[in-house]
From TrEMBL:
Chemical reaction(s) catalysed: 3-phosphoshikimate + phosphoenolpyruvate = 5-O-(1-carboxyvinyl)-3-phosphoshikimate + phosphate
Homology family: Belongs to the EPSP synthase family.
Identification of the protein by name: 3-phosphoshikimate 1-carboxyvinyltransferase
Binding locations of phosphoenolpyruvate: 19, 91, 119, 165, 342, 386
Annotated ranges, domain Enolpyruvate transferase: 7-421
Pathway in which this enzyme or protein is active: Metabolic intermediate biosynthesis; chorismate biosynthesis; chorismate from D-erythrose 4-phosphate and phosphoenolpyruvate: step 6/7
Enzyme class: transferase
EC code: 2.5.1.19
Record key words, sorted: Amino-acid biosynthesis, Aromatic amino acid biosynthesis, Cytoplasm, Transferase
Residues that coordinate or bind 3-phosphoshikimate: 19-20, 24, 163, 165, 311, 338
Quaternary structure note: Monomer.
Localization: Cytoplasm
Length: 428
């Protein structure tokens, strides 16, 4: 990390492919007879877990220079896996596959790492059981998950939490059922499943905060081009905004409105940035240029904005340290159910550098702070990629090395993180 110190950050980077879109492309590609070409997917620990699970069901994959090709014998030929499926650290893999396997009428057992074993799965089991699924959980809440094939029917479901993983699991289970699966959300969550299902020929539409899937249609392959992941770009965007003399451009980043809440926050705080949108149908994307900005205003993040930037909240907290007043996060209790309790982790780690938080169940108020000498502090990463990368950005922006107990989890979503940082470093 030494080589990243005493730097400003300039130039352009193509951040890795969107994790949510890559998971879904691998799953729908495996479900649809023939070949699906996925261009510029994210290849990381989490998405490789999805790929391995789809192969265990009977799909195959091969890699070309830029693409992954998924081949499927068709959904009728997919089979119940012989061994337990291993979903690693990936909540998306675990929850979406629970819906998909239920919809396929297969039997499977599924488990992940020690973090997955603590993440609530009753939120997917409840609607799927309403559809007729036979699902068993540990303590009726956690993995391992056992799914036994059983007859299903469509449901109309009011989502108790804003979760694209739960919404997608229900949609995947309803895909081959005759009739309408209807889901109502209070705050819309990311809509990648809806967009991709539509691209694969499903009869699906969104009306206000409701999604209506008319099931039973055969899916047809469609090639997928994966834009850059705005959740990964967020780390570099924040770094550029708080590091003097920086000016970076992130190419071809997803600007899907259900994911781009960070742009709204940058605008409200007065960050110097500009966006060049590219014309396309389906998933929106464009280039994001961010420059170092003085005199940032504090942020207030709550309500419908939360699902649009849920994974970016840890790194946005760094931006709050540079603001000229107290910033607030409300309505973000979901952060407590991620790879680790991200409210706890942010508060505990930034408390170590003297940041003052007023912590609540669903968020916090945070005061601006200078980052002190951190050379004698030991930080914890909680095996959570978003916490680890936030801590690294905190260190680099203050020109210091950092001791994190175990930074290896970066490979869950952004294996080239340090190399991308090196590619935009410039001498002061
Ligand atoms: O559907 C997805 O791809 C995701 C949905 C979000 O989780 P929830 O569905 O739990 O909100 C997000 O935090 C996660 O990183 C990816
Ligand atoms: C919460 C995340 O992922 P998942 O739920 O798939 O583990 C994340 O990537 O921040």
């Amino acid at each position: 990390m030494k080589e990243l110190l005493n730097s400003k950050f300039t130039g352009s980077v193509s951040v890795p492919g969107d994790k949510s879109i890559t998971h879904r492309a691998m799953m729908l590609g495996a479900l649809t007879k023939g070949e699906t070409k996925i261009t510029a997917p994210l290849i990381s620990d989490d998405t490789l877990r999805t790929l391995a699970c789809m192969e265990a069901l009977g799909a195959t994959s091969r890699k070309t220079e830029n693409d992954y090709i998924i081949s499927s014998p068709g959904r009728d030929q997919l089979k119940s896996p012989e061994a337990q499926l291993y979903t690693g650290n990936s909540g998306t893999t675990t929850r979406l596959l629970t819906g998909l396997i239920t919809g396929l009428g297969l039997n499977a057992s599924m488990n992940g790492d020690s973090s997955i074993e603590k993440r609530p799965m009753d939120r997917v089991a409840a609607p799927l059981r309403e559809m007729g699924a036979d699902i068993t959980l540990k303590d009726d809440k956690y993995p391992p998950i056992q799914i036994q094939s059983s007859p299903l029917h469509t449901i109309e479901y009011i989502m108790p939490v804003a979760s694209a993983q739960v919404k997608s699991a229900i949609l995947f289970a309803g895909l081959f059922l005759d009739g309408k699966t209807i889901i109502h959300e209070e705050s819309p969550s990311r809509n990648h499943s809806e967009l991709m299902l539509s691209q694969f020929g499903a009869d699906i539409k969104t009306e206000g905060n409701s999604v209506i899937l008319n099931g039973g249609r055969e899916l047809v392959n469609s090639d997928i081009v994966v834009p850059g992941d705005i959740s990964s770009a967020a780390f570099l965007m924040v770094l550029a905004a708080i590091t003097p003399d920086s000016d970076i451009t992130l190419n071809n980043v997803s600007l899907n409105d259900s994911r781009s809440g960070i742009i709204d926050v940058f605008e409200d705080m007065g960050v110097d940035f500009e966006i060049t949108r590219h014309n396309n149908s389906g998933e929106l994307y464009g280039d994001i240029r961010v420059k170092y900005t003085e005199n940032l205003k504090p942020f207030n993040i709550s309500g419908d904005l939360i699902p649009r930037l849920i994974d970016e909240i840890p790194v946005l907290t760094l931006l709050a340290l540079s603001a000229d007043g107290e910033s607030r996060v409300d309505d973000a209790e979901e952060l407590r159910f991620k790879e680790t309790d991200r409210i706890r982790a942010v508060v505990d780690e930034l408390n170590k550098i003297g940041v003052s938080f007023d912590e609540r169940e669903d968020g916090y108020t945070v005061k601006p702070a200078e980052i002190p000498d951190i050379s004698k502090i030991s930080f914890k990463g909680y095996h959570d990629h978003r916490i680890i990368m936030m801590l690294i950005i905190m260190a680099i922006s203050s020109n210091q090395e950092i001791h994190i107990d175990d930074p290896s989890a970066i490979s869950i979503s952004y294996p080239n993180f340090l190399d991308d940082l090196k590619s935009i470093r410039g001498d002061k």
